[in-house]
């Protein structure tokens, strides 16, 4: 599915003000996250159960469980550019998917189950200014032929940049699978440890760049998982391919970002178009519409003042520019942080 369809079904209302745009050049490279080795994430198979859910706004979410039980797992992933000293990449799309506690994937017919039409344990996020996304899920179960893992893909401007998997420590797998929710199946009897998994492309037992860092989460009673994902990003610091725009517009990152009191959203139009600029929370809910108007070709900017009528709470949000003209309808999304 084309990324131009992403979030297009959300209901929107309201209007903002348009001002002449004066470009400001910012010569700054985001700092490398502390303690990060600048290593390209190994490429792994997407496996037999991927689904493209980018056209479904409801799958842009943090909680991917859809109520399925399991030991809570909070995933914090950071996407960095190995070509720029592992500087964090904002607005990268991260898709994750994995099986439930019983080893079942959503969306497919599998031995003993039919989950066609279901989407549990699948979700999409866009990285914030620090290159970070967070998902709330459960500790995956296992199925015959594989050790415990989570699949993920990273997209830059709708172009696939990485496909890989996350691994879990052997001792923790054994521990979790003896807890009451998982005890019905028990420990993995088909692949007893990571070294025995023949699907990971990395040398057997050498998963240091795909191994999640795991710590207990005393709030949820489960675990926190963290990983830095190094990708082969653009050397200019800007994504060079943006097919979702159809060449009809250029949307810049809002500035300043993070937002304290006010910020400016700047964009350029190739031709006269109807333009909608909206802000959504991380569940896909529309929280503000800043612009809904027909604009001439050229440079434009929308100023947003938090002290006005459209105040929103602190947090990470997504803003979407939708452009419609004789060539079609085109959409792009980016993230912003409100302090």
TrEMBL record:
Transmembrane segments: none annotated. CDD domains: intradiol_dioxygenase_like. Residues 56-169 form the Intradiol ring-cleavage dioxygenases domain. SUPFAM superfamilies: Aromatic compound dioxygenase. Pfam families: Dioxygenase_C. Gene3D superfamilies: 2.60.40.4070, Aromatic compound dioxygenase (2.60.130.10). One of its GO terms (molecular function) is oxidoreductase activity, acting on single donors with incorporation of molecular oxygen, incorporation of two atoms of oxygen. It comes from the Bacteria. This is Intradiol ring-cleavage dioxygenases domain-containing protein. It comes from Candidatus Kapaibacterium thiocyanatum.
């Amino acid at each position: 599915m084309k990324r131009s369809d992403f979030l297009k079904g959300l209901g929107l209302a309201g209007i903002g003000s348009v001002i002449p745009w004066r470009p400001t050049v910012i010569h700054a490279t985001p700092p490398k996250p502390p303690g990060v080795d600048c290593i390209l994430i190994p490429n792994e198979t997407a496996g037999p159960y991927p689904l493209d859910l980018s056209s479904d706004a409801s799958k842009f979410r943090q909680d991917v469980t859809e109520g399925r039980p399991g030991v809570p797992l909070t995933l914090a992933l950071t996407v960095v550019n190995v070509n720029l000293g592992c500087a964090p990449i904002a607005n990268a799309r991260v898709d994750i998917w994995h099986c439930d506690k019983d080893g079942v994937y959503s969306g497919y017919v599998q031995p003993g189950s039919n989950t066609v039409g279901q989407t549990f344990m699948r979700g999409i996020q866009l990285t914030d200014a620090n290159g970070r996304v967070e998902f709330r899920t459960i500790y995956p179960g296992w199925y015959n032929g594989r050790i415990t893992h989570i699949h993920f893909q990273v997209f830059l401007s709708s172009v696939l940049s990485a496909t890989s998997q996350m691994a879990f420590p052997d001792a923790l797998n054994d521990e979790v699978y003896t807890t009451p929710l998982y005890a019905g199946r028990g420990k993995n009897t088909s692949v007893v440890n990571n070294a025995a998994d023949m699907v990971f492309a990395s040398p057997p037992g050498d998963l240091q760049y795909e191994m999640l860092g795991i710590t207990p989460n005393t709030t949820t009673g489960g675990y926190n998982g963290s990983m830095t994902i190094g990708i082969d990003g653009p050397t200019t610091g800007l994504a060079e391919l943006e097919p979702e725009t159809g060449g009809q517009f250029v949307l810049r990152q809002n500035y300043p970002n993070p937002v304290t009191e006010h910020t400016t959203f700047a964009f350029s139009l190739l031709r006269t178009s109807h333009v909608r600029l909206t802000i959504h929370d991380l569940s896909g809910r529309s929280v503000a519409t800043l612009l809904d108007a027909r604009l001439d070709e050229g440079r434009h900017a929308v100023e947003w003042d938090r002290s006005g009528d459209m105040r929103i709470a602190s947090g990470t949000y997504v803003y979407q520019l939708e452009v419609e003209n004789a060539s079609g309808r085109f959409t792009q999304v980016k993230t912003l942080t409100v302090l």
